[in-house]
Amino acid sequence: MNTDFNSNFSDKTILEDDLVLLRPLQESDVDNLLEISINEPETWKYSLVGAEGKENLINYIQSAIKARETQKEFPFIVFDKKSQKYAGSTRFYDINLEYKTLQLGYTWYGSAFRGTGLNKHCKFLLLQFAFETLELERVEFRADNNNERSIAAMKSIGCKVEGVLRSIMPTRNGDIRRDSIVLSILKNEWFDAVKENLKQKL
Predict the structure, then answer these.
(1) What does each C-alpha distance from 172 to 49, 51, 167 come to in angstroms?
(2) Other CB atoms closer than 10 Å to residue 124's CB: what's the count?
């Protein structure tokens, strides 16, 4: 496996199937995501860093791009081919190619795209890239332990619960701290069952 970030990720890293296309997030994508940002602020209810409102969205995208430049994260914008509209964003983060691990998260979609199967298509492409192109050993997922929809979605694609990290980080309401549930998929699990089971649900 090549552990050099730039040889594994580039502005030409595009993942797609018949339903969805994921391409690298760029500053001009403010315009593509602004409608969701302005009209659906509840999208970021469980997020420490939100993208509601134009100013927050600009900061969100700039921060994601800066993290890409430090080679720790790789953010995507998600395009729904069926409606021909941009649906949201997701990213790889805490990328450690030497240890063959990363986390998959910062995932959000506009309400029109939730429950449509779009997320499963995205996750299949991202996991396939992680395990088959990057040849990773482990992909980790985390969520606010109160975020039932997100946890159910992760379990439905084949993630295994590892445990809960108590009071791991602040929330946007500074008086309350967050418990984070940790889930993961390992390389052998992907090839043994998760890949095929997820493909059946597409």
Answers:
(1) 8, 13, 14
(2) 20
Q: How many C-beta atoms surround the C-beta of residue 132 within 10 A?
A: 13
> Which amino acid, one-letter code, is at 141?
F
pLDDT in tens, 94-142: 999 999 999 999 999 999 999 999 999 999 999 999 999 999 999 999 9
pTM for this entry: 0.96
Cα 26 to Cα 32, 63, 106, 113, 117: the distances in Å are: 10, 11, 16, 21, 25
* Other Cβ atoms closer than 10 A to 42: 10
Adjacent-strand bridge partners of 143: 181
Using CB atoms within 10 Å of the CB of residue 55, give its burial: 0 to 12 exposed, 13 to 18 middle, 19+ buried.
Answer: exposed
The per-residue pLDDT for 177 is 95
**Residue 39 in tokens:** 């009209």
The mean of the pLDDT values for the chain is 96
Q: Are the C-beta atoms of residues 69 and 26 closer than 8 Å to each other?
A: no
Q: Report the distance separating Cα 153 and Cα 17, nearest Å.
A: 20
- Residue 22: how many CB atoms within 10 A of its CB? 24
What backbone torsions phi and psi does residue 20 show, to the nearest 5 degrees? -140, 150
The candidate with the shortest Cα–Cα distance to 38, out of 126, 89, 110, 95, is: 110
